[in-house]
Amino acid sequence: MTMEKRDICACSIEELTKYLESIGEKKFRAKQIYEWIHVKLCDDFDEMSNISKNLREKLAEDFFVEKLRIEKVLTSKIDGTQKFLFRLRDDNIIESVLMHYKHGNSVCISTQVGCRMGCRFCASTLDGMVRNLTSSEMLKEIYTIQRFSGERVSNIVLMGSGEPMDNYENVTNFVKSVSNENGLHISQRNITISTCGLIDNIRRMADESFQATLALSLHAADDETRRELMPIAKRYTISEELDACRYYFEKTGRRITFEYSLVAGVNDNLDEASKLYELVKDINCHVNLIPVNPIKERNYKRSSMKNINNFKSFLERKGVNVTVRREMGSDIQGACGQLRKSFIEEET
């Protein structure tokens, strides 16, 4: 009976050291192998030029290197944003986005194939969730993009398809790996985790002393409107969500981001802005206003620039730290899940 191959991207240096000792190899090789995978971003054992051929063959017998196949890359003519469509080893399709800013390159990654949260304005959730991504698959979104672009990634946003807090173990293992000083060593403070508000795991992440920025998808200033937009609001009230955010700030000292998608005629008037201010005024936070991306399966429309600017100006006058999210890649199906959905429809 042959043993199932292990995922070498998921192995720590300590685990590799134990493995090497068990086959009579020198311990120092563990750090070399780890560096090949997580710094030089190799996709194949044959690339490991300072490892003996015998050891490379043994590694290939016992392990596999996770690979993502690039199916499509769309580049925005407006701002150079690139959207990547990846095929996983089981033929599932996911997407990631590379955005270029003055402060460095930021990648928005997916954490699940699809999503089961059902938010009304999001294309990712239209066909439900297929499965969680492993921590290695998330790492490979970053590694494959970095290899493809030849440029270092300095910021990561877990805001693509999927609900990160619904895939807690894999997401937290990903954060530990990508911030490891022996790997890419991207500071946890440069990682943003977006959630629709799974409270138990927000509190768990705070207790486990992570330093990532927490971004709560709020999208409404009262429970009734939020329930219309987000099924999760039937499970948790806004008050409960904000208590979890306060707890996260107390434990980590990290300022909270509130994401607020502006939907025309639903949540974009000054009464809503006033209600939002009352909710967040005592929290160390930043409000990120998001002009909603229309998707053909839903009838939500984006707010007018006048309403967006009025909403922002109201919060600014009240002393709230607020920005309107810069639209990136609007000409390449930039919204979460749009490109994946249209690609799958074409295939079938």
The structural class is alpha/beta
Which runs of at least 5 residues are low in confidence (pLDDT < 50)? none
In total, how many beta strands?
14
What's the overall geometry?
Answer: elongated
Straight-line N-to-C gap: 37 Å
Please indicate the percent range of residues in DSSP E strands (runs of 2 or more): 15-25%
Summarize the structure.
The chain is of the alpha/beta class. The protein is built from 11 helices and 14 strands.
SSE arrangement:
Layout: E1 6-7, H1 13-22, H2 29-38, H3 53-62, E2 63-64, E3 69-75, E4 82-87, E5 93-101, E6 104-109, E7 112-114, E8 129-132, H4 135-149, E9 153-158, H5 168-178, E10 191-195, H6 199-207, E11 213-217, H7 223-229, H8 238-252, E12 256-262, H9 270-280, E13 285-291, H10 305-317, E14 321-324, H11 338-347
Parallel strand pairs: 1-2, 6-9, 9-10, 10-11, 11-12, 12-13, 13-14
Antiparallel strand pairs: 3-4, 4-5, 5-6, 7-8
Helix pairs in contact: 1-2, 4-5, 6-8, 9-10
Structure description:
Helix 4 crosses helix 5 (168-178) and helix 6 (199-207) runs parallel beside helix 8 (238-252). This protein is α/β, with parallel strands linked by helices and 348 residues long. The chain is 35% helix and 21% strand. It is elongated and about 70 Å long. Strand 13 (285-291), helix 10 and strand 14 (321-324) form a beta-alpha-beta unit. The mean pLDDT is 92.
